[in-house]
């Protein structure tokens, strides 16, 4: 009888467990099979419910596993064919696990929903299975830096959605496959932008059929293979190309004459081949930055007369190419020229550099030629001129520096700690002088658009770009540090060691490492495009996980033993289930009360330690559910990193905006209460008003006044249909400035916004500007007057570089962001657009001696430039003073307000008049008569135009 009862209890317990589990049973079994093949799986992989138990690296949608993201986890083992049973899998990233070996299972072709297969820097080998061509949804295929052998599977040609194809740095061999009849080939990949096949053993000729005018290729990398034959003329049909590498092969024959038609190519590298014939005239390749043609056997010819026509050229490498004659002095006048290497040729005569050489020149290397003289014009040049083993140096004894090889420079760090920071236990000092265990690896750049390797400013820009990327994507990173650059050979132009330091702790947990490593394996991070081309990252093993238990080296045998032991004690645990469940219920009730700071808060009280809210009320979840029609999709007006924004309607008919946090973005209860207390004290016509909040059922919601005309960003881009002429832009600018000045100087306590940008300036029905989104705002207490040291937060492009470098936050950081916003208002360009930073672009183009400061190409034409808007130059001057590098040189926001008011008066406007401008489009406003932009008939919110989406961050 007793055994029957226990058997019944066991069955009931197992049924309850199965019902409670949130993972599909088949998916759970498949993941356990993978785990059984691997050593060093994350410690969280111990429960029986991967989705519900939060297995590190596993993401689910409903009950199905949709992604496995485990880069740099020190995994050891093989990839089980059971992965193919995860039929809803969309992303797999196992990069930088060098202990993962063996072949890819052919059954991987069953993953019909897979979009990303990223296995960079592992130890996989054997042939790439032909079944990979069955992954019809695949967009990113990165199998580079493994040991794959055999041919490139022709079936890859079936992957019509493929954008990124990287099979570089393997042992692949055989010809480049192209289609023929029923057989597929790479020529079918007309939407693919990246062909990365360098560092393999591919052989045979390059098929002419591989290229066509329909292709979208940007990067074409076939360097360091065994390719033969000539470069086909069909290459000139691919007009989208930006980087072309065929160096270090055995190509021969003449170069196609239509190479000059590749007008977008920035990096052309054909060195170390057996090319012959004449050099084609490359005049017209106005984007060409770097040209590598060394170690070929071109026909004996004078230095091409078209060299000076390559206006964008930074680097010319033509060693051992049989050039003869003199290098024209005009060549050195190219404005961007940095490096000229013409060693081992037959150049002769006297070297002339001329008086107007490029101010970026760093090296002119003409070793092993027949140059007999050098007319230095009595000058001392700041760049290296190397004439070693020329008659000018060997015919007579000379002590001239150009007859000696220059010394090489080296330094271990780009950003050394600002002071000595001794660290113990193997920890490393970060740039901010904190001791921690960083995540490390090597950035390997396959192409560069510069050759001035000693200019640390370029690497600083990369370092800052990395830091801002991690910041904007809310990754747990304090700072980054790059090593001094190391030049590499054919395969990689540049190597940089990278160290990423954790924020607020000594080491990363597995989730943090996974997020950071996948940034590089998935190529999510894009370096500054105007300097750095394609790259690959080699991540190091990480051995200091903060979530690692004391005995971290678990093998699959140990896991099985643990599972057996667990089963043995299951019988004893059953009897405690009832008691445990009862206690857990009581504990959960207590925890809910403790975690809810509003549980016993009577909002009508205002004495003692209970906070007082000024004008904000507490809404119930049921109220907000009713006001938004159950948070319907029709009421969804925007989304961002914080969560979603819904439009609601109060019983009075008043519209409200409800900002609802998603689970991962929630603050702690006390922090949420502090934010509400702060925002409830902010009352200004140019600041969005907080009406209330909701803190029920695990929800965090903020209720704001509804601002119908969306964001300034929407209007500048044309998305909202609102026409912004010069007077409207001035009105919006002064409103935003007044709101920000209020926060800095009149709010109690003063507030630094930290995220001023066009998406956080909202426009009401009269196009009055309202500063919004205080998610990153920082109140300044009396003890923090002047500055406060804090973790850097903000948005890339608007971020104050002084704040980023020093972590010292002041009101002047908001002033910098506002200056960028002003430039955005007059240009209608995003701060960073196609790799160009608006502050730098304006600074370079600006010429105060010319009309409109010579900014006509940058300014937004819809302002009405033909009539030269009054005060526009003053507006630009003010913006540029706001973005001064030193915060001490920037104006305060009250000074900014006064100057904008002066500009408005110059433009014939009353700075204190209430705007009556609405949101009708230009066409609507002009129907039936002349344009009257401030007509009462043009008021916006009447249902004519849909409300623009609000974009919270």
TrEMBL record:
Name the domain of life this protein comes from.
Eukaryota
Report TM segments: 561-582
Query: CDD domains given for it?
Result: STKc_IRAK
Identify the SUPFAM superfamilies for this entry.
L domain-like, Protein kinase-like (PK-like)
A GO molecular function annotation here is: ATP binding
Question: Which parts of the chain are coiled coil?
Answer: none
Main localization category: membrane
**GO CC annotation: what is one?**
membrane
What kind of membrane protein is this, topologically? Answer: Single-pass type I membrane protein
Identify the PROSITE patterns for this entry: PROTEIN_KINASE_ATP, PROTEIN_KINASE_DOM, PROTEIN_KINASE_ST
- SMART domains attached to this UniProt entry: S_TKc
Compartment(s): Membrane
Q: Its Enzyme Commission number?
A: 2.7.11.1
Task: Name the positions where ATP binds.
Answer: 659
Q: Which UniProt keywords apply?
A: ATP-binding, Glycoprotein, Kinase, Leucine-rich repeat, Membrane, Nucleotide-binding, Receptor, Repeat, Serine/threonine-protein kinase, Signal, Transferase, Transmembrane, Transmembrane helix
* Annotated signal peptide: 1-21
Q: Taking every annotated instance into account, which residue ranges of this chain make up the domain Protein kinase? A: 631-904
Q: Does the keyword Transferase apply?
A: yes
Protein name (Swiss-Prot/TrEMBL): non-specific serine/threonine protein kinase
